[in-house]
Amino acid sequence: MTSKTPTARDLMTPDVLSVPPDMPVAVLARMLAERHLSAVPVTDTHGHVLGIVSEADLLRRLAGEEDLPRGWLAQLISNPSREAGRYARTHGRRVSEVMTPDVVAVEEDATAAHVAHLLEEKHIKRVPVLRKGRLVGIVSRADLLRAVLDMPPAVRGESETEDERIFRALEDERARQPWSDTAFVFAHVENGIVRLYGLVRSEEIRKAMVVLAERIEGVKEVKDEMSIQGGVLMPGL
Fold first, then answer.
1. CATH second-level architecture of 160-228?
2. How many helices (H) and strands (E) in the chain?
3. Could you state, in chain order, the average pLDDT of each consecutive group of 10 residues for the chain (237 residues)?
Protein backbone atom coordinates (compact mmCIF):
# COMPACT_ATOMS: atom_id res chain seq x y z
CA MET A 1 0.00 0.00 0.00
CA THR A 2 1.41 3.40 -0.99
CA SER A 3 0.82 6.69 0.76
CA LYS A 4 -0.60 9.68 -1.08
CA THR A 5 2.04 12.26 -1.88
CA PRO A 6 1.13 15.46 0.01
CA THR A 7 0.49 18.56 -2.07
CA ALA A 8 0.43 22.27 -1.35
CA ARG A 9 -3.33 21.93 -0.88
CA ASP A 10 -2.74 19.46 1.96
CA LEU A 11 -0.06 21.55 3.65
CA MET A 12 -1.30 25.11 3.23
CA THR A 13 -2.99 27.40 5.70
CA PRO A 14 -6.27 28.23 3.89
CA ASP A 15 -8.24 31.48 3.97
CA VAL A 16 -5.02 33.38 4.52
CA LEU A 17 -5.24 37.08 5.33
CA SER A 18 -4.28 39.38 2.46
CA VAL A 19 -4.19 43.15 2.10
CA PRO A 20 -4.95 45.58 -0.75
CA PRO A 21 -2.11 47.52 -2.39
CA ASP A 22 -3.55 50.89 -1.34
CA MET A 23 -3.59 50.09 2.40
CA PRO A 24 -1.60 52.66 4.42
CA VAL A 25 1.68 51.30 5.76
CA ALA A 26 0.82 52.47 9.29
CA VAL A 27 -2.39 50.41 9.27
CA LEU A 28 -0.52 47.34 8.01
CA ALA A 29 2.17 47.67 10.70
CA ARG A 30 -0.49 47.79 13.40
CA MET A 31 -2.24 44.75 11.91
CA LEU A 32 0.97 42.67 11.81
CA ALA A 33 1.74 43.54 15.42
CA GLU A 34 -1.77 42.86 16.73
CA ARG A 35 -2.13 39.53 14.90
CA HIS A 36 1.47 38.39 15.45
CA LEU A 37 2.05 37.98 11.70
CA SER A 38 5.44 38.22 10.03
CA ALA A 39 4.18 38.75 6.46
CA VAL A 40 1.01 38.99 4.36
CA PRO A 41 0.32 38.66 0.63
CA VAL A 42 -0.86 41.71 -1.29
CA THR A 43 -3.76 41.01 -3.67
CA ASP A 44 -6.02 42.88 -6.06
CA THR A 45 -9.82 42.75 -5.94
CA HIS A 46 -9.83 39.48 -7.92
CA GLY A 47 -7.48 37.66 -5.54
CA HIS A 48 -4.44 37.82 -7.80
CA VAL A 49 -1.17 38.10 -5.88
CA LEU A 50 0.65 41.37 -6.54
CA GLY A 51 3.40 40.97 -3.97
CA ILE A 52 4.15 40.21 -0.35
CA VAL A 53 5.01 42.59 2.48
CA SER A 54 6.82 41.59 5.64
CA GLU A 55 7.99 43.04 8.92
CA ALA A 56 11.46 43.10 7.37
CA ASP A 57 10.16 45.50 4.70
CA LEU A 58 8.66 47.71 7.39
CA LEU A 59 11.83 47.59 9.48
CA ARG A 60 13.88 48.82 6.53
CA ARG A 61 11.46 51.70 6.20
CA LEU A 62 11.63 52.46 9.92
CA ALA A 63 15.43 52.30 9.94
CA GLY A 64 15.62 54.77 7.06
CA GLU A 65 18.67 53.05 5.59
CA GLU A 66 18.64 55.26 2.52
CA ASP A 67 19.01 58.42 4.61
CA LEU A 68 22.49 57.45 5.83
CA PRO A 69 25.38 59.54 4.43
CA ARG A 70 27.14 57.83 1.53
CA GLY A 71 30.68 58.25 0.30
CA TRP A 72 31.52 59.66 -3.13
CA LEU A 73 32.62 56.24 -4.42
CA ALA A 74 29.32 54.60 -3.42
CA GLN A 75 27.44 57.40 -5.16
CA LEU A 76 29.60 57.06 -8.26
CA ILE A 77 28.94 53.34 -8.77
CA SER A 78 25.31 53.35 -7.65
CA ASN A 79 22.48 52.47 -10.04
CA PRO A 80 20.00 55.39 -10.19
CA SER A 81 17.00 53.19 -11.01
CA ARG A 82 17.79 50.78 -8.20
CA GLU A 83 18.37 53.65 -5.77
CA ALA A 84 15.03 55.19 -6.76
CA GLY A 85 13.27 51.88 -6.09
CA ARG A 86 14.92 51.55 -2.68
CA TYR A 87 13.95 55.12 -1.83
CA ALA A 88 10.30 54.42 -2.70
CA ARG A 89 10.27 51.26 -0.56
CA THR A 90 11.85 53.10 2.36
CA HIS A 91 9.65 56.19 2.26
CA GLY A 92 6.43 54.88 0.70
CA ARG A 93 3.16 55.33 2.56
CA ARG A 94 1.16 52.65 0.75
CA VAL A 95 1.63 48.89 0.82
CA SER A 96 2.23 48.83 -2.95
CA GLU A 97 5.27 51.07 -2.43
CA VAL A 98 6.99 48.93 0.21
CA MET A 99 5.99 45.37 -0.80
CA THR A 100 8.25 42.83 -2.49
CA PRO A 101 6.84 42.25 -6.00
CA ASP A 102 7.38 39.25 -8.30
CA VAL A 103 6.45 36.75 -5.60
CA VAL A 104 7.29 33.07 -6.03
CA ALA A 105 4.02 31.10 -5.84
CA VAL A 106 2.79 27.54 -6.49
CA GLU A 107 -0.43 25.98 -7.71
CA GLU A 108 -2.38 23.96 -5.15
CA ASP A 109 -1.48 20.62 -6.76
CA ALA A 110 2.28 21.23 -6.44
CA THR A 111 3.99 18.44 -4.49
CA ALA A 112 5.50 18.99 -1.06
CA ALA A 113 8.90 18.14 -2.54
CA HIS A 114 8.51 20.89 -5.15
CA VAL A 115 7.49 23.42 -2.50
CA ALA A 116 10.47 22.46 -0.32
CA HIS A 117 12.81 22.82 -3.31
CA LEU A 118 11.49 26.32 -4.04
CA LEU A 119 11.88 27.45 -0.45
CA GLU A 120 15.46 26.20 -0.39
CA GLU A 121 16.43 27.44 -3.84
CA LYS A 122 14.91 30.92 -3.47
CA HIS A 123 15.92 31.34 0.20
CA ILE A 124 12.37 32.18 1.25
CA LYS A 125 10.25 31.06 4.20
CA ARG A 126 6.79 30.80 2.62
CA VAL A 127 4.99 30.65 -0.73
CA PRO A 128 1.43 31.69 -1.65
CA VAL A 129 -0.75 28.88 -3.04
CA LEU A 130 -2.87 29.64 -6.10
CA ARG A 131 -5.94 28.13 -7.71
CA LYS A 132 -6.34 29.31 -11.29
CA GLY A 133 -4.15 32.27 -10.48
CA ARG A 134 -6.01 33.31 -7.32
CA LEU A 135 -4.75 33.13 -3.74
CA VAL A 136 -6.22 30.23 -1.73
CA GLY A 137 -3.59 29.70 0.98
CA ILE A 138 0.05 29.85 1.99
CA VAL A 139 2.67 27.19 2.80
CA SER A 140 5.50 27.95 5.21
CA ARG A 141 8.61 26.05 6.28
CA ALA A 142 6.79 25.23 9.52
CA ASP A 143 3.97 23.61 7.51
CA LEU A 144 6.49 21.41 5.70
CA LEU A 145 8.14 20.44 8.98
CA ARG A 146 4.80 19.45 10.48
CA ALA A 147 4.09 17.33 7.40
CA VAL A 148 7.34 15.43 7.93
CA LEU A 149 6.63 14.97 11.63
CA ASP A 150 3.13 13.69 10.87
CA MET A 151 4.45 10.97 8.59
CA PRO A 152 4.40 7.48 10.09
CA PRO A 153 7.95 6.28 10.89
CA ALA A 154 7.67 3.61 8.21
CA VAL A 155 7.03 6.29 5.57
CA ARG A 156 10.08 8.22 6.76
CA GLY A 157 12.06 4.99 6.40
CA GLU A 158 12.93 4.69 10.07
CA SER A 159 11.71 3.36 13.39
CA GLU A 160 10.47 6.03 15.76
CA THR A 161 12.33 6.18 19.05
CA GLU A 162 10.75 7.25 22.34
CA ASP A 163 12.53 10.61 22.15
CA GLU A 164 11.22 11.15 18.62
CA ARG A 165 7.69 10.30 19.75
CA ILE A 166 7.96 12.84 22.58
CA PHE A 167 9.32 15.49 20.21
CA ARG A 168 6.53 14.90 17.68
CA ALA A 169 3.85 15.04 20.39
CA LEU A 170 5.40 18.25 21.74
CA GLU A 171 5.46 19.94 18.33
CA ASP A 172 1.88 18.84 17.60
CA GLU A 173 0.66 20.35 20.87
CA ARG A 174 2.61 23.56 20.30
CA ALA A 175 1.07 23.94 16.85
CA ARG A 176 -2.39 23.80 18.41
CA GLN A 177 -1.71 26.65 20.84
CA PRO A 178 -2.08 30.16 19.33
CA TRP A 179 0.12 31.70 22.03
CA SER A 180 3.08 29.40 21.39
CA ASP A 181 6.17 31.12 19.91
CA THR A 182 6.81 28.22 17.55
CA ALA A 183 9.18 30.20 15.33
CA PHE A 184 11.46 31.27 18.19
CA VAL A 185 11.39 28.46 20.78
CA PHE A 186 13.19 25.22 20.00
CA ALA A 187 13.04 21.84 21.68
CA HIS A 188 15.59 19.07 22.05
CA VAL A 189 14.68 15.70 23.55
CA GLU A 190 17.23 13.22 24.88
CA ASN A 191 16.50 10.27 27.16
CA GLY A 192 13.08 11.70 27.96
CA ILE A 193 14.50 15.06 29.05
CA VAL A 194 13.16 18.07 27.12
CA ARG A 195 15.35 21.14 26.74
CA LEU A 196 13.50 24.31 25.69
CA TYR A 197 15.58 27.23 24.41
CA GLY A 198 15.07 30.40 22.38
CA LEU A 199 13.02 33.57 22.83
CA VAL A 200 9.50 34.10 24.23
CA ARG A 201 7.41 37.25 24.46
CA SER A 202 6.55 37.10 28.16
CA GLU A 203 7.01 35.28 31.46
CA GLU A 204 3.48 33.87 31.09
CA ILE A 205 4.33 32.24 27.76
CA ARG A 206 7.58 30.92 29.23
CA LYS A 207 5.73 29.20 32.09
CA ALA A 208 3.05 27.86 29.74
CA MET A 209 5.71 26.34 27.45
CA VAL A 210 7.18 24.45 30.40
CA VAL A 211 3.74 23.21 31.49
CA LEU A 212 2.96 22.13 27.93
CA ALA A 213 6.16 20.07 27.75
CA GLU A 214 5.62 18.53 31.19
CA ARG A 215 2.20 17.22 30.12
CA ILE A 216 3.61 15.14 27.25
CA GLU A 217 3.55 11.45 28.10
CA GLY A 218 7.02 10.04 28.71
CA VAL A 219 8.69 13.34 29.62
CA LYS A 220 10.95 12.89 32.65
CA GLU A 221 12.18 16.44 33.06
CA VAL A 222 11.93 19.85 31.37
CA LYS A 223 14.96 22.13 31.30
CA ASP A 224 13.97 25.77 30.79
CA GLU A 225 16.66 27.70 28.92
CA MET A 226 14.32 30.24 27.32
CA SER A 227 14.88 34.00 27.43
CA ILE A 228 12.23 36.71 27.48
CA GLN A 229 12.26 39.19 24.59
CA GLY A 230 9.50 41.78 24.93
CA GLY A 231 7.61 43.22 21.96
CA VAL A 232 6.89 41.63 18.59
CA LEU A 233 9.27 38.90 17.48
CA MET A 234 9.94 39.22 13.79
CA PRO A 235 11.24 36.40 11.59
CA GLY A 236 12.36 37.47 8.13
CA LEU A 237 10.78 36.33 4.91
1. 2-Layer Sandwich (3.30)
2. 11, 10
3. 72 92 90 87 94 81 52 53 54 81 92 88 90 92 77 55 90 87 80 91 92 95 88 45
